[in-house]
Specification:
The protein is α/β, with parallel strands linked by helices. The protein has three domains: 2-174 and 231-310; 185-230, no CATH class; 315-502, Rossmann fold. The chain has 19 helices and 15 strands. A six-stranded parallel sheet has the order 2-1-5-6-7-8, sandwiched between helices. Helix 7 (142-158) packs parallel to helix 10 (227-252) and helix 10 (227-252) packs parallel to helix 11 (271-286). It starts with a helix and ends with a strand.
Amino acid sequence: MRKLFVLFICLLCLVVATDNAAAKKKANVNNSKGKIVFIPHDNRPVSDEMPAETIRKLGYEVIVPPDELLGSKENMGDPEKLWMWLEKNTTEKRKPSQLEKKRFHTGGQVWGLKPDIKAIVISADSMIYGSLVSSRKHSITERKLKERVANFSDYKYRHDDANMYVFSSVMRTPTSGENSGSQEPDYYKPYGYDIFRYTALKDKADAKGLSSREQKELEFLQELIPMAYIRDWDTRRGKNYRVNEALIDLAAKDKFHCLVLGRDDNAAWSQTHMEARHLRDYTQKKGADKVQNIAGIDEMGLLLLTRAVNEIEKKHPVVTADYNWGTGKYLIPAYSDEPVDTTVRSHVKLLGGEYVDYGTDVDLLLMVNTNPNGANLGANWFSNAKKVRPDIKTFVSYMEKAMDRGEPVGVADISFVNGSDNSLMEELRDRDMLYKLQSYSGWNTPTNSIGFALAQGVLAKGMKKEDKDELLTIRYMDDWLYQANIRQMVSRQLSWFKEGGVYSELGSDKGQVEQRATSLMHTFAKDNLPASKADFIKHIRVTSPWNRLFEAKISLEK
């Protein structure tokens, strides 16, 4: 313990001369309510800038590491430098309290938490593996992983008054090589579906047993998939599982204010589902009541930031939800292993709120848009038409009546994955309801959308209207205009460009693709958003931060 302490102080001295400015994501610190330190699991806008900017609009200074320390598509991140950065931005020398005098046996100065740090929201994946992507592909030794987990305990020992909100991923199980997005080992491309099916059968065998036909299928897959690939897959997952057990141990010892284990992309039967089930049992065995085990991962940063703000301000928001026709709250959406209703309730609990089944005197009514037929396809699917469906008319009418009664309404648009439901957005636009909402989200997986809509929805009451509207505008431009429409158009036009880049790797065409996407965004936004947003629209620029079409960064041009 003392050796680690000395190491951290030495590292702190090495970096103490540099860049508070490079702590990036500039904040308005005038009349700041205090500082919140946020270390996301990578530098995608939805993981990094968007959560931080949401909290800044409430008057907090959110301190985030510079991009070069965070993981990206190609850069796996740097845990050692992130721990150094955390030390530098949260630690100061001061006179010890009476408790610290006894604890550290000193009457001189001690290193402790800066008094204006209100909370620390931190990705365990970044601090242990380097990033979320690195957690899926790394070859880090078990010994090194244990050392990095121990850093949490050491940090807490020296910063006893730090409120640490930590999120960690239970490794995902993509349904196919195509759905892995090149973020798994190379063998996942040809064997992705086989590996997914193999783990689904293992999960079912563990939980309830297999039929004779399923047992034969499992044996066939064990022969089909090269043993070296299965061994590599199992070894890395085993490390991740033991890391999460160790984090649960720390939570049981009150090292964290809160720990959430997010189940990354998975399914009702999958390796992720099986591991999460056993981790839930382990949590119960350890009596770790500060741990939650929840479907999803990319939304966890914003949910925990929201939890921190609610606890700082002693708020306990009350939330209820309602659903579109059909499957509604019973839908088990794509990339999840549980019904939507379960996810909504667990997300509300995580952000520090209370879920009620009925009620009009609430802080947020979350309207969840699901497809009546139970489908949950990609937003680029041909069925995502702009013609308004009958179910949407009823859904929006109910929403409108709730607004007329003065209820604060947010929308989680999960009818499709990776983009908005065009039918819903056309109806909201035509009824002039886009900016009467508290929040809207329709990006990436359904659990991601639910988390963002809930978090921004309950926080909206503490924002100026122009700030709330700016968050809505970014979501509309990203989820609706880009994800559900522009992305599909640009994808079909890739052959126009010089190098003929592909969807997942734009290469040297990146600049031209960004220009085309920006041009289309200006046109689409002008046609679909109110005239009052015209000045905002003309300064918008669309970029591809991970050099692929899957996500975009919507920013104001300088």
